[in-house]
Amino acid sequence: MTNRIAFQGEPGAYSHQACRNARPDMEALPCRTFEDAIDAVKSGQADLAMLPVENSTYGRVADIHTLLPQSGLHIVDESFLRVHINLLGVPGAALSGITHAMSHTVLLGQCKDFLARHSIHRIIGADTAGSAQHVSQKRDANLAALASPLAGDIYGLDVLAEHIEDNSNNTTRFLVMSPSADTSRRGAHGMITSFVFEVRNIPAALYKAMGGFATNGVNMTKLESYMVGGSFTATQFYADIEGHPDDANVQLAMDELDYFTTNIEILGVYPADPGRF
Hints:
Oligomer: single chain
Order of helices and strands: EHEHEEHEEEHHEHEHEEEHEEHE
Number of helices: 9
């Protein structure tokens, strides 16, 4: 055991904060890409991986749902992170002197009102923590970064304005991935089962496949589609449901789903995080 949890991004990224919140006893291992974070677990450099899958403002994280079935890893937990955005400057800088702010394009878009109100021009950076690192190295009192409070601590930047995001409920959902599955647990707030499937090429197959969840009282909290291998005829679906595969009603629903699909792969069975409620 390495007691490490891998994440994509530079130290101070929101994924880094998610690691600290969900696994405070583990060392967070920064990785260049999502694939690198997954490979770190598969190669034994880390025990777990923390992967963002969706944001309440911007929807799903691109490519993640394609990577999950291919990863060889299992979802063992979920974690919700409230995304607070701070304007960070070098020591001695003042909000009134900031003319430009750098961050990932998504964060820049989440602070449009604040930036317009203060006549601050936007500069697109590769990522949030990397932008904070750049500002720290640049030592320009007119340049700031939009990033997490953790990034400010790591790179020695002052908070010039805090919680400047336009959407006060902005939240990102993360999945904790492990090489081995654990279906023995029962969460205090219920269980979530995540899986992917492809429907058979027959009329109304998806409609009929979903019917089993409705008739058996299984709540489906997420259903998303994406193409498989660039084909317009093969569509794969990702789904989250409330419940455990051992529950009688879930078993009945999954049996009905199996009849109308060509492939079902369970990605994880894990306790529902109270953050989802």
